[in-house]
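ARCHIVE CARD
SHELF: 3
SLOT: left
DATA:
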Amino acid sequence: MDESFELRGHMSELRGLLFEQLEKGLPPNSFFVNGKGGHGMLPNTLHISLADNLNAGKVLAVGDVLACSAGSACHTGEAQAGAMGVLGVQPGFNGGNLRLSVGRSTTREDILSASSIIINALLN
C-alpha cells in the first residue's frame, strides 16, 4: 500500500475520532463543522465554528498544553466574510473558529486528551 494513502487514512480516522469526541462532550448544536461532507476537508484538519455562547479564545488560553488555531483570516468575529459564507457557516455560530490538525505522529490517546482539554476549556 502507498505510504501516503496509509498516512491519509490514519489522519482522517483521527480527525473523525476528534469530531466524535467533541460531539459527545459538547452540548447539542454548539458547533458546526466547516466543509462537512468531505467538501474541502483536508484529511488532517477539523475546522469548526462555535455557537455564539462559546468562546474559542478559552481554548487558546490553554496553549501551554494544546496547540491549535482560533479564528481565520476570513472571519471577523462580528460578521461573516464571504469565505466563511461559502463554507456554509450559519448564523448563530460566531463564537469563533477552531482549526484542529492531526499529524503523522498523532495517536488515539493524543486525540482523547486534546478533546477533553478542548471540551473543558469551552464549558468552564
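SLOT: right
DATA:
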Amino acid sequence: MFGRISIACPAGRQNLVVVGTATVTPPYMSGASISCNVGSVRLIIPIGKSESISLGLFSIVSPIAYISILSLGHPLLYVFTSSKSITSSFGNFNIFLLPLGRPTQSSFGTVIATGGNQVLSIDGDGLIVEFGVPTILNIFDHSVSYRTDANGGWSFVQYGDKIIASNYKDPIQVYNLGEIGASFSPLGGNPPKARWLSVVKNFLVAVNIVDEDGISPQRVRWSGLDSPTSWTPSLVTQADFQDLFGDGGENQGIVAGLTQADAMIIQERSMWKMTYTGPPLGFQFDKLEGIRGTPAPGSLVSIGGLVYYLGEDGFYVFDGSQSSPIGNGKINNTFFDDVDHSYFRRISSVPDITKKLIYWSYPDTSATSGIPNKILVFDWGTGEWTRLEIETEILWRTLSFGYTLEELDQFGTIDTLVNSLDSRQWTGGIYQLSAFNANHKTAHFTGSPLGATITSQEITIPDPKRMLVVQVWPRVRAAAGNIRVGVGRRTLPSDSVSFAASTTMNSVGFCPQRVTDNYLRFRMSLSAGAAWSQATGIDIVSVVEGNR
C-alpha cells in the first residue's frame, strides 16, 4: 500500500457542500492518509484522528464512493460511506478496510465494523459486503453468492490491466483496473474453474481445474496467446491443455519464471517442468522429480528464479531442474514433530528480499483451530534457521507508508522512534513483512523486539571428563541487564537435560555460574522489548574436575 490514496469522485448529481466531522477507522492504520481531489479542492484525512472538515463544491453520485488497489495478489477494498443520506451536509464520514479473499478466511461471518445504521460484514464465502441501506457499490458482484471452500482460498494474478481471480468453486472472475464503477465479473471465453492461476509467456494458465468434462486435479489448461478470454483449443490461438497423469497426486501450484524453466507445476508427490515450444504443442511438460512434491501449497516462495518449498520430508529449493535440501540436519525433524499435520493448507510464506529471509507460518499441535502460531525463518544467504512464536492468520507483503518529519510525531520523539530517521520504513513504497493477526487486522513486524532465546550445541571434553563452568561471556550487543544465561547439564547421553537457574550479565561482562557435569549446553535469553543486535555466541571459563 502507499501513503496516500486518491479517490476519483465522478460527477453526477448536484454539487454538494460537505461540512461535518471526519472519523477515520481502523486505528491500526495510524499514520497514513486518504486524499480526495475534487477540482482544486483537496481533502486530507489523517487516519486514526477525528477533525472537522470543510469542502467546497463536492460532486458525488451516491452515498458510497470506493477505490480498489492491488497489493501482492490480494485486492484491498476501501469503502467510504456516510452514516446518513447525502444532503447538503451530513454527519460522520467513515472508512472501513476490508481485505478480500484468503487473508480473511477465519473471519467469515463476523462483523468487521459498524457505522450509524449500517453494518459491514463478511459472509460465509468471504466476499459479500452488506450494509443496512439498499445503496451499495462493491468491486465484487453483490448479486453473486461465492462458494469458496472452508479450506480453500482465492488465487489472484495480474494480466495487463486486469486482475483475474479464481476460487475453484465459481467461474474465474476479472476486474479491469482503473475502470470507475467496475466490478469483478465472470471472465469471458468459458474458462475452467481453477485452484491456481499464473501468467506464463503471456498465456493465462489454470492448474487443478474443473473442466467441461468434470474434475481434473492433474490438468493444466492455458488460454490463447495474449488472449485470456480464448479457451477453445486451437492452433491459431495456441489455447490448449495437458493432463499430467501419474501417481504424483493433485496439482498443488504453479510458479513461473524459473532459472531453468518457464514454469514449474508442483504436485503432491511430483514436479513438472513447463517449457514453451510454440505451435503445434504450445507447451512441453517434463517430469523431473517423481517422488518429491509438496503437501502445503502455501509453502511455495519464488525468489530470483528459484522456488523454496516444503516437501514431504523437509524443506528444499528448486531451480527448474532439480531440488536441493536446505533443512537436513537443521530444522526438518523439529518441524515435522511440531506441526499439526491436519492443517498443512494453513501454511503461508513470504520472502523478505532486503534481509534475504524467508518466513513460513504454520500451526503446531497446540494451535487453536489450525491458526498458525509459529513462524520458521530461513536465511538463504547463510543457510541458518530460527523460529518465532507468534500467531498469524496469513503472511504477506505490503508497501510501507510515507511520512514527513511532522507526521513522525505520532510515533514518538526522536529518542523513542523504533526505527532511525534514515530508515526506509519512513520513505514509503518499500516492501515490508506483514500479516493478518488473530483479530483479522493487517499488522506489520515493526514493533518492539520479542524476547529471544539462543541455545548452543552440547559440548564435552574427550574421555569424557566433568567440567566446572564459572563464567559465561555472551557475545551480543545489548544492555547488560537484558542478558541472562543458563547452563544445561547431564551426566550421560541417555539422561535428559536440566537447566540451572540463569544469571544476569554483570558490569564486567560475564554471567557468573557454578555448574559442573560431563555434558553442557548454554541458553542465552534476551529480554522482550530490549534493543539488541549481533548475537554471535558465547565464551566460557571452565576447569576440568578430577576423578574421585
